[in-house]
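The record is kept unedited without comment:

——
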Amino acid sequence: MDSGCYSALIVPAIGTWPRFDSPLRLGVMASGAGTNFEALHNAISCGDLDARIHLLVVNNPGCEAIQRASRLNIPCELRDHRQFASREAMDEDLVTTFRNEGVEAVVMAGWMRIVTPVLIDAFPGRLINIHPSLLPAFRGMDAIGQCLTSGVTIAGCTVHEVQKDVDTGPVLAQAAVPILEGDDREQLARRIQKQEHQLLPWATALAGQRWRSAAGTQG
């Protein structure tokens, strides 16, 4: 079947993008190609997502996200996890780095490392992640492979707040993607990733409403 005849269901549906008194100040973390990082940038550039990416941090020296950041003229810093004595030590460095950049929230856009309470507690409710499944189903590694093996007929992706347990935390938004007859991992991954590029900027905007509302209440 032609996969083009199928569309994803995004919840909450993309509607009017929220505006803020000043753009959201974002830090982004990526480990691989950086396509979700660029999707955030594109949503900002076209005027949908009212935000600014202050810094991209990567943990792999050769990852494509570095080249994307250079092309997009966004500051990028490498934090090679192999150079730190522990996950906590690395996260302490990340907290210092993002705070020095004036970041108010951090988006994990394909960050393939487990983070610790050091980072989570530094940005309570303001650390979000995108995962290629409809959580709480298929947590952890190779979610798409898990999905195909299980025999379910609906896959998708989720943006959620990060908590101590992996791939838990309140769901901000999801996109459901049908599994088609004959789908392999690569085919399904491509269709899910297409929806990730729509979902992550939208979920970031929705999260931004919560962040700014909470800041206003506290102030």
